[in-house]
Structure formats: C-alpha cells, structure tokens
Design brief:
Structural class: alpha+beta
Oligomer: single chain
Amino acid sequence: MFMLNTLYKEMILEHYKRPRNRGVLEEATVIQEGTNPSCGDELELYLQIEGGVICKIRFIGEGCAISQASTSMMTEAVRERTVEGALELSQKFKAMIHGAPPAEELGDLRLLQGVSKLHARVKCATLPWTTLEQVLRTLARLEGETKRELG
C-alpha cells in the first residue's frame, strides 16, 4: 500500500508540475469553461473534433494539484477517442472517484483512485471530466438538432 500511495503522490506532482496538453488550441472546434467554486479551480478546455473523434485537446487554468493533474491525465486519455468513448471513460472515472472499483480501461487514471478517500477533493478530480461531459453532450445535442433540421 505504501508503494501505491507513493506512486499516486508522484504521479499527481508530475502532472501538476509538467502538465500535458497545456495551452490554448487555436484551431479548437469547441471551448468549454469549468469552475469549482468550493476551492477555486478553474479551467478552459479546447477540443478539435473531426468525424466524431477528439483529434486534439488542450487546456488552460489554475487550481490545486489534484484538479490540474486530473485535467492533464484526462487530456491524454481522451485524445483520439470517439465522443462516445470519451463519455464512457468519463463515467467510469467518475464512478471510481466516487468509490466504485476502478475499470481496467482507465489505465493510469486508476492511480487517482485514492482521491475517493479525500471527500473534499472529489470535485477537484472530477472537474475536468464534468467539463468535458458538458461540452460533448452539448455538441451531440446540437448535431442531433442539425440532423433533424436537415432530415
């Protein structure tokens, strides 16, 4: 258990100090803001989606180590996934953070399972995922409306 806790802490610090996919994505298809008012975490997701696949994803924002690490890891995990695949992964991640056993497909994201024991940090870890879900569901709804209008 000590080794797992050490790995968990090291991974969070690594993604916090050297976040992956940080920065503005000029050619973004969609942009979504997310905030966690309880601790001040803020982020802005930039996604480029083509043919129902997340081709590129980047973010900017400020927040605690857990929210920034979770965002960094999320961008790596959902890049090159379909919108549906990203939504499924999000649901599995959020279930784990709320105490469910981690799904195998979460890969390295399973290292964040310990956040489930830190109730005050659950919103920090889930903020990027909730923000991603908001933008993908809005996009899916708009595409559905467009198809109905054209159909």
